[in-house]
Task: structure prediction
Amino acid sequence: MRKRLLRIITCVVAVSILMVPVYLIAEEKINLNTATLEELMKLERIGPVYAQRIIDHREKYGPFERIEDLMKVKGIGQKTFAANKDILTVE
Result:
C-alpha cells in the first residue's frame, strides 16, 4: 500500500514538472521590445500570427512602456496577458 502511494505521488510530481514550460523553470523573462518572433511564440496562447502582431505594433507605435500595453495589440486580451504577465518585461 505504501509503495503504491509513493509510486502515485512520484507520477503526479513527474507529470506536474513536465507540464511546466521550460521558460518558467529557467525564469527567463521575455522582453516585449526586443523579442524575436520565435521568442514571442514561447508565450502561452501566442502563435505566429499574434507574435507578428506584437512585432508590428512595436514597430508602428514604438516600444512598449509597460507590460500591460501588450493588451493594446489586436486580439490579445486579459486572459492572454494574465497567462504571461509573470515572464514579461519591457526593460
Notes: The chain has five helices and two strands. The first strand starts at residue 30 and ends at 31. Residues 66 and 90 are 6 Å apart (CA to CA). The chain has one domain: 22-89.
